[in-house]
Design goal:
Layout: E1 2-6, E2 12-17, H1 20-23, H2 29-42, H3 102-118, E3 122-125, H4 135-145, E4 150-153, H5 160-166, E5 172-175, H6 182-187, E6 190-194, H7 195-205
Length: about 210
Amino acid sequence: MKCKIINLDNKAAGEIELADEVFGVAVRKDLLARMVNWQLAKRRSGNHKTKTISEISGTTKKAYKQKGGGRARHGSLRGAQFRGGATIFGPVVRDHAHKLLKKVRLAALRSALSAKQADGKLVILDEATMKAPKTKELVNSFDKLGWQSVLIVAGTEVDVNFAKAAANIPNVDVLPSQGANVYDILRRDTLVLTRAAVENLEARLK
């Protein structure tokens, strides 16, 4: 399929042929959900922790004799029923990541790209570069283009001036092509790819 290319001044800069096997596949919401869950699970720190009874500070002496006191039988004052005692079945340090096949991950990325293309929210940019890191200039360009929530995917490397200018703009993300992922594509309203990004993604996903 053919798609128009524009520049940051919202002027035409030619056309590009997008591969149907990358930008025109059927959108699989189930794969998108699985991929987002996988990404969010991987980045969870998993360092939440409560103390078990063996980690609570306190005496190991039996509080009082087993029988004859008219009270319940307790073998330790570090139990969950006492103040400052242990937590039963509480969270422990763990890794929340789980496995997801590589072919499923690639299929989900194709589906995310195709979903943006189908919704008319995919924009091809000539290049994401600036002569100087001027945030005000970039904000003015985005206003002309009508971009409020946008992910911009550049080529192998992101232009330093462009990245610095975009760093302080809310709801704007800038990534190199190898960093393109389903979660970041879906969390922004508009997806912007440079020429170089299209070439790199097609080489990666074909």
